[in-house]
C-alpha cells in the first residue's frame, strides 16, 4: 500500500477549571493530536483500500504516545478517549473509516489495554472544517460522566487530496458531571461496556 505522507501535525491541550459551578480542585485536561496526511485514494474510486490501515498503524502509535506525553506520561491518568477523521473534498467518507483500527488500537496499546470501544466520527470537508470528536471512558462505555467531545480543526486543512486524522484523550469526567448513571468507581471491566 502507499506510504503515509505527513504534511503537518497539531497538538492541543485544554484545561477546564469550571463550567459555571465551583472551581475543580484539579482541572479536566483534554488533549488532541491532529495529523494531516496525503489521501492516497483522493480523486478516484479504489475498491481495495483496506491495506492502508496497516500503513497507518505506526502513525497511530506515535500520535497516541504524543498524547500520553502531553498529559503527563502516566497511562493511569487517562480516563477518556476518542478518535475521528476529516477527509478532504476529493476523498470519500470511507477513507476516514480507515482510521478506526489504527487509531483505536494505538490508544488501547498506549494505555495498557483499555477495554472500551473507542468512539469515532468522520466527515468530508474542506480546509478549516471542524470536527467534534466523541469521548467515552477508556474501560466502560456506559460511564455517563465521561460522555464528552472535543472540537478540533486546522485552518488550512484538509486540502482536497488530504485527510486529517485525530486522536483525543482526557484525564477525567466532565467538570460538574452530575446526571447519574454508572460511575467510574462501579466499573466491572469485563466487556468494555460496564
From TrEMBL:
Q: Which InterPro entries match?
A: AA_synth_put, BB2672
Q: What is the organism field in this record?
A: Caenispirillum bisanense
Q: Which domain of life is it from?
A: Bacteria
In terms of Pfam families, this protein maps to: AA_synth (PF06684)
Q: What is this protein called?
A: Amino acid synthesis
Classification lineage = Bacteria, Pseudomonadati, Pseudomonadota, Alphaproteobacteria, Rhodospirillales
Amino acid at each position: 500500500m502507499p506510504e503515509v505522507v505527513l504534511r503537518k501535525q497539531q497538538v492541543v491541550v485544554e484545561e477546564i477549571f469550571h463550567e459555571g459551578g465551583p472551581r475543580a480542585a484539579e482541572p479536566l485536561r483534554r488533549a488532541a493530536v491532529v495529523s494531516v496526511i496525503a489521501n492516497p485514494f483522493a480523486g478516484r474510486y479504489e475498491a481495495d483500500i483496506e491495506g492502508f490501515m496497516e500503513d497507518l498503524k505506526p502513525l497511530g502509535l506515535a500520535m497516541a504516545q504524543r498524547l500520553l506525553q502531553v498529559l503527563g506520561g502516566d497511562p493511569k491518568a487517562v480516563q477518556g478517549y476518542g478518535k475521528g477523521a476529516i477527509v478532504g473534498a476529493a476523498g470519500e467518507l470511507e477513507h476516514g473509516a480507515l482510521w478506526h483500527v489504527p487509531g483505536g488500537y494505538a490508544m488501547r496499546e498506549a494505555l495498557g489495554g483499555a477495554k472500551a470501544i473507542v468512539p469515532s466520527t468522520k466527515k468530508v470537508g474542506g480546509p478549516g472544517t471542524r470536527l467534534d470528536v466523541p469521548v467515552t471512558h477508556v474501560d466502560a462505555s456506559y460511564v455517563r460522566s465521561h460522555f464528552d467531545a472535543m472540537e478540533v480543526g486546522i485552518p488550512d486543512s484538509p486540502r482536497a487530496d488530504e485527510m486529517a486524522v485525530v486522536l483525543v484523550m482526557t484525564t477525567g469526567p466532565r467538570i460538574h458531571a452530575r446526571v447519574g448513571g454508572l460511575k467510574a468507581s462501579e466499573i466491572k471491566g469485563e466487556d468494555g461496556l460496564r
